[in-house]
Amino acid sequence: MQMFLDFLVPPRINGYYSYLTKPDGSHADPSASPSASSTALSILSDSPFPSTSISPSSSFASRTSLAMPAPVPSIPARVALVTGAAQGIGEAIALRLAADGLDVALNDVPCKTEQLKDLVERIKALGARAVAIPGDVTSEADVALMVKTAVEVLGGLDVMVANAGIVAMKPLLDTSAEEYDRIMAVNARGVMLCFKAAAAQMIKQGRGGRIVGACSGSGKKGISNMAAYSMSKFAVRGLTQACAAEWIRHGITVNSYAPGCILTPMLMHPDDAKNGGPASTAKLATGMPLDIPDAEPSVVAGLVSYIARPEAHFITGQTINIDGGLHFD
Ligand SMILES: NC(=O)c1ccc[n+]([C@@H]2O[C@H](COP(=O)([O-])OP(=O)(O)OC[C@H]3O[C@@H](n4cnc5c(N)ncnc54)[C@H](O)[C@@H]3O)[C@@H](O)[C@H]2O)c1
Name one GO biological process term (predicted). Predict the structure, then answer.
């Protein structure tokens, strides 16, 4: 596997996440922590002067100096690994997690290495560290190396987003066994390998974690002309539930997102202009009305941002619809 180890910015104070993360990955109660803000508030409330009044200068000086935030220890940022990150939903998730304060390892197939390297630069511009790790999620050795590299370069693994996926829109009668095998290999086996490698590392670290998989609305309800794809996404939903049950005692949550129509390269087609706009060819091919809602990848990234947070510790085993109301569970 070709690798690009590119991590630059110095260690940061990452107060938000380190502050909220307990060793078991659960949510620390900020009110129980001697945080800067609670210290400042208690000092102000002890003051003999109402906070709105003008106090003598000596008291004011002492109040303001005492109210300064206490130094926050420099704790390394949490680390995420996102597969299929070169474009579309994976790219949006990687950027969002970096903006949230995580360092991010980026995977996609080796032919998209230049896109990954570009994304590394954009993430560095956000103040996070990033590393590009090209490889194929269907290969157990590649997935093991992705996790190993993320740990060695970025310092651990706290969030796995098994996002990589492929689609074929054709009737089952026209789908070869080889096409079926390839879709299952990327969408089901690939997600399973990522879940397994991530959980092994997270259990070894002993600080919990967040595992997230890419499902689809077609993992909730079979869609015509997407039989193999629907099968692979139903598999992700089963995997999500089983792994959530297995790893809950380790403080690891396992969830998946089930998007409807998200405007990414996966759904774009050269005939879209003549068929009615972006993703129209895909909608027609799968029997969807052209006016079903669609959204930008950042919508899914926002959901993953929340699931990945320490305070989301009470959500596990879920495959969450994010489709503008197309389906209700
Ligand atoms: N776009 C949608 O409307 C939609 C809807 C439901 C579910 N999804 C799912 O969300 C995920 C992301 O979809 P997207 O729309 O961003 O697709 P996309 O095609 O734009 O991006 C998917 C990325 O995965 C990468 N990839 C494919 N095979 C890989 C492999 N073997 N190893 C590593 N990387 C590989 C591709 O190179 C690509 O960069 C997929 O799992 C997809 O099935 C998408």
Answer: fatty acid biosynthetic process
| 135 and 43 inside one domain | no
Q: In this predicted model, what pLDDT tens digit does every residue of 259-278 receive, in sequence order?
A: 999 999 999 999 999 999 99
The Cα–Cα gap between 26 and 295 comes to 31
- Residue 308: domain span: 79-322
Does residue 200 contact residue 120 with C-beta atoms inside 8 Å? no
Residues with CB under 6 A from ligand 1: 83-84, 86-90, 107-109, 112, 136-138, 163-167, 186, 190, 214, 216, 259, 261-262, 264-267
Which amino acid belongs to residue 196?
K
Angstrom distance (rounded) from CA 255 to CA 243: 9
> Is 80:160 a contact under the CB 8 Å cutoff?
yes
61 and 162 share a domain? Answer: no
Q: pTM of the predicted model, to two decimals?
A: 0.82
